## 1
Amino acid sequence: MRLKDKVAIVTGAGRGIGEGIIMRFVEEGAKVIVNDVNEADAKSVVEKVKAKGGKAVAVVGSVTSRETVQKMVDTAVQEFGTLDIMVNNAGITRDSIMHKMTDEQWDSVIAINLTGVFYCMQCAGRVMREKGYGKIVNISSTSALGNTGQINYSASKAGVIGMTKTAAKEMGPKNINVNAIAPGMIWTDMLKSMPPETIKQMDAMLPFIVPLNRKGSPLDIANLALFLASDESSFITGQVIFCDGGMKI
């Protein structure tokens, strides 16, 4: 097992990509902290893990709260003895054309997608520095390169890339790897909630914008996160890997 006896925290893990990462990690032997703002979703994932014979604990709350983030880290250490892996997946969108964007749309996205990642890296990093080992995987986005109607989201995800590279430089001497994944068009609840006509138009455009001609799945991201969280990636740090079917070639 590639993560046997490793302890991981995954934020935004109540569904979608986060849930996919949790389940993949558990299959490879990890003990996990499931974080989400939705208590029912978090507990549901914990029950799925236990049904597979894995070990999981839910910590409900927002990554915008330093107290919640510290509770995640403390729970990992108290329940499982340590912390090896931190996956920063929690994120939201509040889309709008720039000249119509409200302060609330800007502030909420930056708080969760950017400040939340900082809190998680900082709190988890203190434990990892002390033990001289750690894997941090940040979930960015292809939108980091810019996307109409997402100036807040693009800014936050570009910021995640900058933080990833800085943290990799600072934490490398302590044997901590910090990398980022930039997903493309992944078939999650976020996409499924779009109007049917929008989804139809998107499917029609797939052959022209995604060379592999399909939407990605949470498992596609989870498999990459597993690699970056495992010792197979021990000489990789500060990198951003686009998992997008070739969309940003």
## 2
Amino acid sequence: MINVIYKIYLVDGDSGILMIENTFKAFSKGKNLEPDLLTGFFQAVNSMIDDIQFAMAKGRRINDMNRIVAGEDSTIVIYYHPLSRVLFCSISDADDDKERLIEILRKIGSRFWKKHQRDLKNFRTTSNKNEFESFDTDIDVLSMGGHAAEILPKLIVAKSALERIKSMGMITKEEVEIAMLCDGENSPLQISRDTESLESEIRDILKKLENLDIIKY
């Protein structure tokens, strides 16, 4: 399974105008995700803009904000960069790591502010987006072509060694079974579905296995 960010959007937090749209992967036609995804995405963006403007009207200080909308097949992450007043948004596979997605969007936000602080002032006066076109390259680099939030654990010890490690009391039978599913193609979410376990529990087990040098990402 290859997980990837579908799209990254930059949306002006003042006006709601789309500034940049960067596409890494087409939406799955088989699951007909596009209409539902885009509807959910723009609803989440508009809701967050309303919350920001309401807070500003009340004189409240706006710091970093983020919102996650997780579905069965996809994840929407929205990060608000307060200095630029821009929403940095991603739509990705549900398997992608949410914390990494937020960190990626933070880095994109910081880079965008550093490069286009003056251009933003011009944009909010003229709506001219031409100066932002070259920023697609920065998005590609910082998101590793849409793969930066992909987590695919892989077993790095011989399968026969797992029983010896278990016999030493270092891991449990359940953790052996989880390790066996780490083939470099299964995400934590997929492993949780295959084992009918909570994703949070699987991530805790994977962290332990990584610390023991049994798996790597």
